[in-house]
Write a structure and sequence with these properties.
Aldehyde Dehydrogenase, Chain A, domain 2, 16 helices, alpha/beta
Amino acid sequence: MGKGFFKVPVAVNEPIKTYAPGTVERDQVLAAYKELWNANTEVPLYINGKEVKTGDTAPIRPPHDHQNVVGNYHRGGKKEVQDAISTAIEARKKWSQLPWEQRAGIFLKAAELVAGPYRARINAATMINQSKTIFQAEIDAACELVDFLRFNVQYMTEIYAEQPESTSGAWNRLEYRPLEGFVYCISPFNFTAIAGNLPASAALMGNVCVWKPSDHQMLSAQVIVEVFREAGVPDGVINMVNADPVMMTDEVMSHPDFAGVHFTGSTTVFKSLWTKIGEHINTYKTYPKIVGETGGKDFIVAHKSAVPEQVATAIVRGAFEFQGQKCSAASRAYIPQSMWPEVEKLIRRDVDSFKMGSPEDMSNFITAVIHEGSFDKLAKYIDGAKSDANAEVVIGGNYDKSKGWFIDPTVILTTDPKYVTMETELFGPVITVYVYEDDKYEEMLHLVDTTSEYALTGAILGQDRYAVSQATTALENCAGNFYINDKCTGAVVGQQPFGGARASGTNDKAGSKLNLLRWVSPRMIKETFVTPTDYRYPFLGE
């Protein structure tokens, strides 16, 4: 046991490298890209610190070049899932008792490994596997993951320091215990940082994890495991298992030691998990913690006082960066009638300047969507808008899957504020615009609030402060992250804790203490120094 009250290094956000032509980091990431592209990487399962190869494999194909195979990953069955669970439960005996400063040291080391020797490798893996440009990979796989690891350590110490008042006669102390059991972590394809943070945040607080990464993120998941192993995460604490999701969830959530789920993904899947937990509630030793960040139908609202260039840039960046494959991406916009012609012209100018293709060519702003299922869904909605009397494709609208899953950045203009693409999460480079009469601003705000089941992110742009204040109040329940005069994406750890409500999740704010508090079960300890020896109180005296 450590002796002393230890201070950890003050967390600072990792600086974003430029990757400008001629820079060292550009050369390093391109070299790592070429190496991974030709390596034919084999990704096993990791259970109790051991590589498990089942022989049941699937290929890893870059979305921007889907005929190319850059590796394969192994898939587990019931035995592997059960082994991961039992291994985690056994590892908990020692991990939960390890002094907090030892856990802190592991994850601080992991942060520095990502920031330094693994930076080019994890960025290149993300570029290849998830088809991110170098900038999108850098802010995600490198910087955000580093930020999660650093700030979570600092938040842990702040949580431990929050203690109740004591008196001279009694010492009150609050112990933040890890959960009694194991945590099931399910991560999405679109953010490498989320894939790393979901198990790491729970493990930092003394928990053990069974982690299922996305099928479409296995190359970068492999790098995350490499970092955790080199950082010193003990065997069995974080077990990575890829398996059939229905089977795996059934095995996990029918186990008595299931203690919580840390999830990022679709609303439909999250609701099914919640339902399954309810069905098995009498099985569990404790009430499971349910933490989820799910979908969004994120909005941009422009007031007539807004600057058109700012509105257009917010739409272009918010809707089209990483092909709109962010749960925070702008996918519906409300523009005043007087402003729309200028905003449309500016968006068209920007979109016409985009280059599309492989992220290896760093002049490309747009790459591919993640897989054929996503491509086909987006194509269907685009074609629907082309033929619908209430909608018009005014920018983009083309798509091509001959080489990669390429969807042109697309703007749909609708006369129906409840049109299907105003309400449905598309998860691609498609935004739908509704043009409202300038003097119907208040009515439009009500429309924004009531159009979608989601409540993740949203933005208001305007120079009129009364109008901004009005929107901030009217839209208080439909965005967990609300932006004033900015796009609705780009939450930074330690600056903008991230999460939404309604159908967008439990709003437990990743990148803050609020999330870490979900992975502890506090115990109150009161120590009385002079223990009473007589039951009688003064009021009983004669």
